[in-house]
Amino acid sequence: KAGVTQTPRYLIKTRGQQVTLSCSPISGHRSVSWYQQTPGQGLQFLFEYFSETQRNKGNFPGRFSGRQFSNSRSEMNVSTLELGDSALYLCASSLKDGAAGYTFGSGTRLTVV
Amino acid sequence: QKEVEQNSGPLSVPEGAIASLNCTYSDRVSQSFFWYRQYSGKSPELIMSIYSNGDKEDGRFTAQLNKASQYVSLLIRDSQPSDSATYLCAVDDSNYQLIWGAGTKLIIKP
To answer: A-chain residues within 8 Å CB-CB of B46?
Structure first.
């Protein structure tokens, strides 16, 4: 059974650019969450989607957005990149909610220069 | 604000000994509690989940939950060098979000 797949694994972008990250959940998993991980702030929740609906959103500026498609695949977009957006972006999936825990992808390492 | 607290460590334990990791949380209504292991440069991996008071054992790992004290712990028996990693405590906030502790770095000394 394939795990959670995130693409790309690494990205280098320039300040002011925008970026789109992709996540394919485990087959059958309909809940997809996104987290940002930095050495200083740890793991911070971005948003969660289920059946193409955003059910919760973390305390991030509007530059961070996401969506989920009918096949449960998800994308997140960051516009007008800032140096502080450099982080590991993790996608996690679960069957319907987090009650049984989430399975994480390998992450996308974003560096903003 | 919902919080999860962990000692950042590092916690150094001799090989073969028991490693004890602790976590406290602030939200009394939380029902689901998790321990994740994260190796350097890798993503978190779920190793234990616990939902009711008491102990839950899985191989060398035992999770303990005390809801009255808002306390979760993870014991690792017969610690191996491969157990060296950062251990993250996470609590489900019942709103489709995990609240994370900062993680405890565990070092197993051969």
So the answer is: 101-103
